[in-house]
Amino acid sequence: MANDTVSSTPPDLGGLSSPGIQAGGPIPAPNQPMPPAAAMSPEMAPPAVGGPSSPDTGVNPAVPPAPPKGGTPVGTPNPPPHARLLAMVNGLSIGLASFGTSLATHGREGGAPEVEQLRGAQQQQKIAAQQATAAQKNAELQQKLITGQINEGNARNWLLLQTAPDVLAESHLKPIAEQQTLQTAEADFRAAHGGMDAATFNKVLGDANPVSGQSAATGSFFLNGAQRSLRAAQTAQMPADNPAMQTMQRVLANPNATAKELYTATQQLELERESRKAALAEKSAGETAASGSAVGKLSTPEALAAPGAQAAIQAKIDDPTTDPNDLPRLRALIPQAAVAQFNAQNIKEREARNQQIVNQGSPDVAGRMLADKTLTLDELKSRQVTPAFIEAATAAAQKYDPTFQAPVAAAQARAAATPANQQFFGNTDSLLVQGGTLDQLAQAHASLGNGKIPIFNKLENLRKAAAGQGPQAAFAAAELGVADDYSKVISGGAGSDTSRQQALDIINRDLSPEGMSAAIGQIRKTVQSQRNGRIGLNPYLKSMFPDPSTLQETSGQAGTQKAAPGSAASKVHANLTDFTHHFQSAKGMIYSDDGTTWYDANGNLIPGKK
Amino acid sequence: MATTVNLQKAYSKLNSSIVELFDGLGIHRAATIPHVDGQTMADHIQAIGQVLPTIGGVTANFLTATHTKHDPKGGSTVAHSADTLRSTIIPKDNEQAHAAVMAAKAFVSDAASLLGDDDPTVKVAKGQLDLFGKNDMAGMSAFDAGAALLSVPGPLIQSIARAHSGTKAGGHSPQLRAPGGSAPAESASNAPGQSEEVGDQAEGQEQAAGAPAAQETAPAAASQAGSAPETA
Asked: ipTM of the predicted structure?
């Protein structure tokens, strides 16, 4: 499309204004071929205009038309008066002048050459005059052309303007993709700001009136957002003394709070929560990295469940090259190892018993154990029994327990065997088992003299003290172990400093013997409650994770207590823990395989115990 | 809300300011063809086509056209004799000339808000305005002044029309076309002068308020100028 309305180099239009032969002389005729001789022959008949069949037009091209009445044809220029005479006089004057010049110069000048020169000069004057006329006509045409171009440009501008909307915004000129991006961004903004666009949102923020006076939708957006943020912070266990929390609670309690105040408090609290989240993630990453250390390797589930784990941990504690900072964690690992070994032993016993049932080939026994939840269908299937055996065992189970339903039982058993439950019960039992971390704490506290009881009200102080030596360090280590296990139980996972601090607060509330006993009792009760809640109505959980109070943690012996040599029990199992059942009773720990014949901790048969 | 501009209104204002400049210089109008209420675009073009041959044709007259909706007088096409304009010099401190330059600057400013100050056409337009707008065109012939004022917006309008065309499905931007897509039907079927009815709802409503678009007088001049060889 042309941009220039006015052309900078106008074309020469002189030729258009003066058609015909120019004054510069006639245009030489091209070498045209001669017509054929026949065409020049006088015998050639005149052309028959219109043909023989056409009507007679009455025109004979061989005869020139008669001149109109009055003489000269129309268009013939009138010659000037005495033109011929003037031409003769002019020619005579030129000739005489040239003759005179020739006489005066004895033939050196003048004569015929001067006549030719004068004629040439006259011809040049005519040409110049004609060119001047042509230039003037050219200029006039250029002006007309420019005027036309300007008018055309004006019209084109109008035309182009009307290809677009009357009112234009910058967004109207952006490609569709950009417009969609803008629309999406606006939609996202509205979605995140209670349906308000940016302008409305800014207006509301700038309003000094209480948000309660705003429209219902606007007010609820700011109020609900603030309340939601506060609940999220509380769920994340953000300390109540956090300035952002306090600000939010103060603003929410103010009935005259403005939208800006609510929004600012919300943003600050969200920022604080994000910062805490990032800090915890960073800390968790650090702990993950620490899992590759010596302590980390000893604390894996496999290492804890391995026979001799407690001895290995104790050796690490006694090793003078061990980093003192690792000692508290190592001490806390001992009861965890005991529980892990017990669970491993339990699983091993179950597997041996299941194999025995399969070997016996008695579906009735299998059915009885399915009914009392000491055997699961998955365990049975893992023994590569035939479908017929499983069917018969299931039928037998329904005979012992008419409410037995294989699918329900299978689901409950699978839920019980999840790693999450293994970890959870490992943590609870690490606290509750006899000789566990709670008992260690009680012992460590008892070993402290009056007036030497330190107060570790902060985790950092506790960690530093636990790295030292002596009764106070032992107490600190025990306290740290309890706090760590308690945290894992309460949070249901890896634990957090917040829940560790909660345990610490409970323990430090009263450090007198009575107060310590009460604190330990409270923690035990809390953990036991968590444990019972997890077991719920799932009988398999109860079977797989028996009451830890029936277990006795003996350092270096848990899970591998040997039956006394020569005793009745030793003839059945080398280790007392190999018995299927072991319960804490008035006679202490008792052991049995079939629930009928029982042995005490010394391996002696208990008469009459059914 | 994004800033909006009305280029048709600004261009109409520029045309009317040129008319006032010519009138103020004492140059008689060769013709004034007003838009008659209810007159269609075709009728108005026909009226101009009947008038122009009687006053020397489109190449002997400087035509200006105002918008039907944006001109307080209802819009008209005005012709001034080009020869008279060439022989008339704008004096110093002429108010109408100053108003015409300001109208041109306003249009350039509006266009710059759409295209951006870095757009080459905007830079050129501002440069041209600074050049001949100095001293409010004093000493220039009326014809040159009018030609200069109408020449400045041309490239800007072309850029805007081109950019707006790119926003349409099947527009000049190839990446916006679906594979195998054809040219939009509206580009072939829209009558000249009929404004686009794309964009947001507000645009559509405003366009509807100014309907029928065919009544606008500007296209009349367009058609007439386009047929200059016939009428000259």
From this structure: 0.75
